[in-house]
Specification:
Number of helices: 16
Radius of gyration: 26 Å
Order of helices and strands: HEHEHHHEHHEEHHHHHEHHEEHH
Strand order of the largest sheet: 1-2-3
Number of strands: 8
Shape: elongated
Helix content: 40-55%
C-alpha cells in the first residue's frame, strides 16, 4: 500500500501546521481528504475556505454519506456501508445470513469513484482553469455499483433474493463440485448450453422445456443444479477446465490466494512486484493493474514509513531551512 507516495506528518490542529499545509497547497493540484463532514473547516482547510485562494485546486472529499443529506454527519465504515447499501442482502446462501464481501469493497469503490471524479475535474480544469470540489459518499457509490441487481429491483419492484454463487439472470452460472474441489461454470447463453450438453452426454436435456432456454433454466435453477452436479463430480477441476476451454465455455477454478499468485497468467501479467524498503529489506507489493502503452505505471518509491519524507518534502519542495524544520519538529508540529 502507498507505493509512489511520500509520507509527511503535520499537526493540522496547530496554526504552524496549518501554515505548512497552505505552503504545500501552493504547489498542489489535488487535495484528497476523508475527514468527517466539516472537520477540516475547524482548521481553516475546508473547501469553502480554500477555493478562492486556490482557484485551480481540485478538492476531493470522501465520506461515508456525502456532504449533504440527513446522514452526512455520520461516520462511515466498510461493513456498515455494505449493509446499508444492499449488497449484504444479496450475498450469502439463500437460507443463510446476509454476508459482506471478503474484501472492503465499499472503501475501494469510493476510492475508485473518487479517482474517476478527479480525472474528470482535471479535464475540466485543463479546459477552464477552474478547480472544484468532488463530493464522494461511500453509500452513493455502493448504490451505484449494485448494477444488474439494482436494475432488477427497479424493473420489477421485487427484492432480489440471495442466491449464493448463482447468477440472478443466467443459469447455469455458478459453482459446481468436482472430483477434487470446486469450479465456476458460466454458460452464458442457449447455444453455449447446447454445446455443453452435446459434448458431455446431456442431449436429452435439450428436449426438456425446463432446460431448453435460459429463462426456463433460471426459473428451474435448483433442478439445473441437481441435474448437473453428478456430472461435474465425474472430473477433476483441471480436467473440466481443459475440456471446457477446448469448447470455448467459460470455466475456472476457485483459487486460494496462494493459487492466485502462483497462477501462470497472473505471473505473466506482472501482478506481483518487488521493491526495496526503508527497513532495508526487499518487499513485495501487488502491481497496478492498468496497462498503458505509452506511460506504463512505474514503481519509483516503496511504501513509506510514517513521516519518512517530511524533511525531504519541506526542504526540497518548499525550500525550508534546516533550522526551520528542526524548530517545527521541536514544537511537535512535524
Amino acid at each position: 500500500m502507498n507505493r509512489n507516495k511520500l509520507s509527511v506528518t503535520v499537526d493540522i490542529a496547530k496554526p504552524e501546521g496549518q501554515a505548512v499545509i497552505h505552503k504545500l497547497l501552493e504547489h498542489c493540484d489535488i487535495l484528497a481528504e476523508n475527514f468527517k463532514v466539516g472537520a477540516l473547516a475547524k482548521y481553516g482547510l475546508g473547501w469553502e475556505q480554500l477555493k478562492e485562494k486556490y482557484p485551480r485546486l481540485i478538492y476531493c472529499s470522501i465520506t461515508g454519506f456525502g456532504q449533504t443529506g440527513p446522514y452526512a454527519p455520520r461516520p462511515g465504515y466498510d461493513a456498515l456501508i455494505q449493509a446499508m447499501g444492499g449488497v449484504m442482502s444479496l450475498t450469502g446462501e439463500p437460507n443463510g445470513s446476509p454476508q459482506k464481501v471478503g474484501v472492503p469493497v465499499a472503501d475501494l469503490f469510493a476510492g475508485l469513484y473518487g479517482c474517476i471524479g478527479i480525472l474528470a475535474a482535471l479535464n475540466h480544469r485543463n479546459a477552464t482553469g477552474q478547480g472544484q470540489q468532488i463530493d464522494i459518499g461511500m453509500l452513493d457509490t455502493h448504490v451505484a455499483w449494485l448494477a444488474n441487481q439494482g436494475m432488477n429491483y427497479i424493473a420489477t419492484g421485487e427484492n432480489p433474493p440471495r442466491l449464493g454463487n448463482q447468477h440472478p439472470n443466467i443459469s447455469p452460472y455458478q459453482e459446481f463440485p468436482t472430483k477434487d474441489g470446486y469450479m465456476i461454470l458460466a454458460v452464458g447463453n442457449d447455444p453455449t448450453f447446447e454445446r455443453f450438453c452435446k459434448a458431455f452426454g446431456q442431449e436429452a436435456l435439450l428436449a426438456d422445456p425446463r432446460f431448453a432456454t435460459n429463462p426456463q433454466r433460471v426459473a428451474n435453477r435448483d433442478l439445473v443444479t441437481q441435474t448437473l452436479t453428478p456430472l461435474t463430480k465425474s472430473k477433476t477441476t483441471s480436467e473440466w477446465v481443459e475440456a471446457l476451454e477446448a469448447l470455448k465455455i467459460a470455466c475456472g477454478p476457485i483459487n486460494t490466494l496462494e493459487q492466485v499468485f502462483a497462477d501462470p497468467h497472473v505471473q505473466a501479467r506482472g501482478m506481483r512486484v518487488k521493491m526495496p524498503h526503508a527497513s532495508g529489506q526487499e518487499i513485495e507489493v501487488i502491481a497496478n493493474p492498468v496497462k498503458l502503452s505509452a506511460t506504463p505505471p512505474d514503481y519509483r518509491v516503496p511504501p513509506p514509513v510514517l513521516g519518512q519524507h517530511t524533511e525531504e518534502v519541506l526542504r526540497g519542495l518548499l525550500g525550508m531551512e534546516a533550522a526551520e524544520v528542526a524548530a517545527l519538529k521541536e514544537k511537535g508540529i512535524l
